[in-house]
Structures are given as structure tokens and as C-alpha cells.
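Subject: Sanity check before I submit

Could someone independently write out the C-alpha cells for this chain? I want to compare against mine line by line before I put it in a report. The sequence has 283 residues.
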Amino acid sequence: MVGVLTDSTASIPEKLAQKLNIEIVPYYVHRGLETLRDMVDVGPKEFTQWLKGASKLPTTSNPAPGDYMVGLNHLAERVKEIVAITMTSKGSGAYQSCMAAVDMLREQSPEVRVEVVDTLQVAMSHGWAAIESARCAVSGLSFEEVVERAHEVAQNGMMIQTADTLRYLYMGGRIGKAQHLAGSLLNIKPLIGMQDGVIVALGTTRSRLKAYRRMVELMQERVGDGARIKVAFMHVDAVEKLEQLQAMVTERFECIETIVAELSPALAVHSGPGTVGVSFFPT
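---
Independent answer below. Compare away.
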């Protein structure tokens, strides 16, 4: 059997990761003098409640090679083939850390075969690649087939998110104060996505409903109206706000699998409470 490893920013629901035997390596959240392991020492609900009153955002960092070695060694105790799946190498050093760990593992245990897949994705678009490849592994497919599935899902996936406020983008230094203030007055909802492994702006709307409608339009442009998709609805303390988007998406597409996932704290810090999004791929 093939082992699958990924990191906490994939935001895969815990029970699903356990069911599929996915090894999760945590990112880090640095909050004042505290260093917290993402989804281990701090979870979405606790972190979001703290974030709402924060005057200064925490910082985040990717796992070190030693962190990946722990996960790889844990898998190597029971399998001799491992597929490691990381978020985009253009937005984090996780891919490089993982590659360094794999080099160390090859010296230590040359009989273990490892392939690292850079998804060029984030959140559940990254998560879907890990989930689908793990399902292939559980089904007994070959190492090559597991790797191929990870690449296929990552390449065909799309992520779209909208933030409830521009406050966290401003606090994180991603937009200027004037834009933050103007956006707050106009109730602007920014739309963001991924293109070639980099976060890009997909436009703005002036209400949550319009943001959701635009999300559906972008999904239709990508895969066509009524397409068969697997979709994850992601949020940061916004499960009730998510329901409206979920209804709109399920009405326009044939959703053969639906997952609701909370963004991990390492991602939530950059978008803030009220964030809602979709990660999907055609099937």
C-alpha cells in the first residue's frame, strides 16, 4: 500500500484524514511569544474567537524539514512507498522543506520510495489532491497511479474565496489603509483565487449575495453549467453564511461529493472570520 502525506493547510476534515490514513504535518502559528502547531495546539473555532479581538495578526511558518521527517518516518514504519503532497511552492516554503526531508529519508532508508507533488494549490484544492490520491492508495492502486491522481486533481482544481471584510488583508499588509477604509464603507467583498500557483484577485462585489453569484459564474466558466463536480465549501466561522452559497452551487452543478471544511488557523489568519469559499474539480 502507498502512504500519503500532506500538511495542515490542506484543511481536510480530521475524521476524513483519519479514515484515509493521511499523515498530516502541521504548519506553525506564531502568536506573541507562543508558537502553536496548526490544527494540533490550536483549532479553527478557538483561533477564530481569539482573532476577532486581535489588534495584531499572528504570523505563520511552514513545517521545517525535521517536521516532515517525523511524518515520513511514521509512514515508513508501515509502507515502502510514499506520496507527499504540498501546497503551492510559490506561496510557501513547504515544498522545499519537504524535498529536503525526502533527501534525508533517502539516505537513511533508501528502500523507501517517495514522490513529492507540488499542487500549485491551497486550501481544499490542495486537500482534494491528497484525498483523491489517498483513496487510490486505499483501493490498492499502484504508486504511479496514486501520483498521477494527485497531479490530475491539482491541475484541474479551482479555488475561489470571498472575505467578509478587508480588515485582515489590511492588518496583514496586503492592501493599503485607504483601500481598507473605502472597502469598509462600500461593503466590498473581494474575490480571490489561484493562478499558476499564485493568489490572484478575481474581482470585487458590493454584497455577499453578489459575491456568491459571481463565484457560481466563475465556476460555470471553468467547467460548464451543470457539470459533474466534487466540491468543498470552506469557511472561517461562517457555516451559516456558507449555506446560501452551497444551495446556489448544488442547484447549478451535479455535485457528486460535497465536503464542508473549516480553514486551518494558518490560512484563516490571512482572510479572517466570515471568509467563505469553494474548492472544486470536474469529474
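---
OP: Matches mine. For the report I'm noting this point. The first strand starts at residue 2 and ends at 7.
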